[in-house]
Amino acid sequence: MAHPIQRNGAFSSTRLSRFFALRTLFASAMAFALFLFVSLFLLSSSDSSSSNYADVGSYGFRSTRRSVLAVKSDPLKPRLDQIRKQAEDHKSLALAYASYARKLKLENSKLVRVFADHSRNYTDLMSKPSYRALFEPDALVIDESVLRQFEKEVKERIKVTRQVISEAKESFDNQLKIQKLKDTIFAVNEQLTKSKKQGAFSSLIAAKSIPKSLHCLAMRLMEERIAHPEKYSDEGKPTPPEFEDPKLYHYAIFSDNVIAASVVVNSAVKNAKEPWKHVFHVVTDKMNLGAMQVMFKMRDYNGSHIEVKAVEDYKFLNSSYVPVLRQLESANLQRFYFENKIENATKDTTNMKFRNPKYLSMLNHLRFYLPEMYPKLHRILFLDDDVVVQRDLTGLWKIDMDGKVNGAVETCFGSFHRYAQYMNFSHPLIKEKFNPKACGWAYGMNFFDLDAWRKEKCTEQYHYWQNLNENRTLWKLGTLPPGLITFYSTTKPLDKSWHVLGLGYNPSISMDEIRNAAVVHFNGNMKPWLDIAMNQFRPLWTKHVDYDMEFVQACNFGL
Q1: pLDDT band per the 50, 70, 90 thresholds, residue 506
Q2: In what order do the strands lie in the sheet with 519-521?
Q3: Residue 487 buriedness (CB in 10 A; 0-12 / 13-18 / 19+)
Q4: pLDDT by residue (tens digit) across 82-100?
Q5: Residue 214 pLDDT exceeds 80
């Protein structure tokens, strides 16, 4: 066990040693803090001095760079560009209005000049010497006072331009509407012309095409002719004296349409007071001869006499004598008719029908050779195959022809159906020989005095003019113009009740006029045997169709 005095001495010695250690530590910390403070102060002073020297050295360069940037980003430059753009835009606007005014045909208006002057004003303004410096690319400084003056003048011109545009707006709107209306009318007229051409061509196709029932009838009649040749052939048989008897009433019918020719004969016989005194000379082409023979031999026509022949049976009708046949051999004319080109189908719409080769067929031109075909006859009545006889026609043979050749109903009224519409009066020969106001007449029912014909040498006249017209400079093709020329001074006008025309194109003909007519004529495209016939007139024709004939029934004709 330690002595108490020893334990107290040890404790005091430990406390003393701890005190000196703490004092030493504090003194060291203070010394370190002082050193750190002095060091930081010295370092800060050095950096500040270096920075000041560097700033002083680079001051001139930094100042120069700011001056250049200040010029490049001058706030006046965008303002100048904006003012210039406004001027250019309104200059273009004025030019556009001037151009549009010309398009709207306002040349006589001062608007064109006003807008052109305004456009020039902008150009003149920017070309002024006082403002030219503003637009120089190397200009470093923009004079603000000059810019203000430039801006003021630009705004004044813009104000005037807008005012002029505002005042002219109504005039432009009206002209625009007028121009749009004109454009619409032009487009509609173009469409109408195109539709008329298409309609005329379609109508021509419908009119000239052979209906299935008509083709069927011709084929069945021909089949019958081939099966029983002995019943229908006239070969080797003597010519009946009635065919050449001038005391009888003779009719000429030239057709390749079997049913149409039969209706003409049926209607004439039905209305004849003495049918046994009537002789019908039917002439067709070689292809339809057999069908025609069967049609007219299968029934009795109340004692009437019917002669059926082909064009080819008249040997004098050859190309050395007949101008039409000679012209048909011309390559030029063949190209006109038969060359397969689309423009041939639709050009010259008003005379499109004359491009039909039928107008050069001999069946159509036989009417000019009646005296030679029937040399023993004195008078003959020519009937087209699209007519219907409604009363006895023997009264025509009692008419005094006054030495004229052709008895026909005149068709002129006002300025219509005058010679000027059928012939080319710009040709000196036509102009010299004929009166353009002379009244036209109609083919379809024509009463011919064959003795007067021979005396006047009408066939020779026809040949003369037909030869001159080979290149179609005197008239368009067809038989009416050469007929008008041939019988120019030798036609006797007949009373209009003898011959009423237009049932093939004119729906407004009165039924009273039709009922009083001796002959009604379905001239035009709407023939009564076609689907396009006018329904109000068709019964006048269909009542003379022989529906009891077995071949007509077999072909469903008229259904």
Answers
A1: very high
A2: 387-389, 519-521, 499-500
A3: buried
A4: 888 888 888 888 888 777 7
A5: yes
